[in-house]
Amino acid sequence: MSKKVKKLLIIVTVLLLLVAAYFVITKFVIKKENKTDNNKDNVAVSQIGSENIVSFSYKCEDTDFKEITLVKNSDNEWHYIEDDNFPVNQTYVTNMAKSISEVKAERIISSEEAGDLKEYGFDNPVVSISFEERDGTKHNYFIGNENTSTENYYFRMDGDSNVYQINADLKVMFMMGLFDLFDMEPFPKVEESSFREIDIKCQNQHMRVKSVIEDDAEEHIGTNDYMEKDITWYAANGEEEYKKGNQITLQAMIDEMVDYAFFRAVDYKLDDSKKKKYGFDKPTAVINVKYQVLDETTAELVEVADGINEIQCDTIDKEYTLYIGKKSNDTDYADDYYVNIEGSDKVYTMESSVLSRMVTLVPDLYFVSNITQ
């Protein structure tokens, strides 16, 4: 047999082996895919309808494994069962109810395959949830350990002997302490051009700041002009006369104040007996802010030049006083400060990085003589 024929036979044999291998692998993959499709297909485990849920309880690490119960009243509003005055974030709690009404599994492990439930963490669940429907039907859900290879969590229900794998969404939704469900007030929003006077008292320091609109704004201010006017910042040490301030450092202060926001809620029943607890009896700092907002109800079209019209409106004077207490006693947020807005019975925290200029007030930094040449 010639070398050419031998070579041809070898090539044909290799091709036949490759074709055979292709069919074997294809058959194996199809079989595996079919098996996977049976086990991983976002199977609906629970479809109840969130509107039918009238109460639910849960516990997790963030609740120190103490049960939190929320109930829906006749007005379809959620309330904390232990205190009807607790300000519940209705949007978030409604979403919690929706999440337990529609649970989907990415994989089902039959009771025959599952074996010992302790292996999945159900002896000490990460999250335990119980809830009741309008007709009195009760359900219990348990979220166990994480499957590190799939990043899913094991899940089971009372009355169902199967074990399921679900994504992390349900677990994340319920990893909430009570005050994570708090409906926080928005911090007064003040734009840079809206600040008029700021009075800051910190320890033995006292500084006042005011803005001066250089082109002498008229009583009626155009909605566009209001944001564009040139502002110069003036400062006074204590009760001294105002002097032109260091525009760089004062602007940095204003920029921080524009972004003020509450970080966490810690109390909703502040009274005189609690002021010492949070340091409001001897505040670290007290900040009074006077500002203006546009009164859009007075908007009118005014002719400011021949053929040129402009929308103008009045302004409304507003103010707030922020009390900065002592640092938080929560070890996870030890650098935060307790804060309270005058007139509110709610206590929040704010991050120390945001309040650093106020709690370590150095008035000398805010005058013209301190501008670096």
Folded structure, characterized:
With 373 residues, the chain is α+β, with helices and mostly antiparallel strands. It folds into two domains: 43-181, no CATH class; 192-370, no CATH class. Helices cover 23% and strands 35% of the residues. The chain contains eight helices and 22 strands. The strands form four sheets. It has a nine-stranded antiparallel sheet. The longest helix has 37 residues, at 3-39. The radius of gyration is 32 Å and the shape is elongated. The N and C termini lie far apart (97 Å). The model is unreliable at 2-10, 23-38 and 216-228 (pLDDT under 50).
Key structural traits:
373 residues, alpha+beta, eight-stranded antiparallel β-sheet, disordered N terminus
Summed up:
This protein is an alpha+beta fold. It has eight helices and 22 strands. The chain has two domains: 43-181, no CATH class; 192-370, no CATH class.
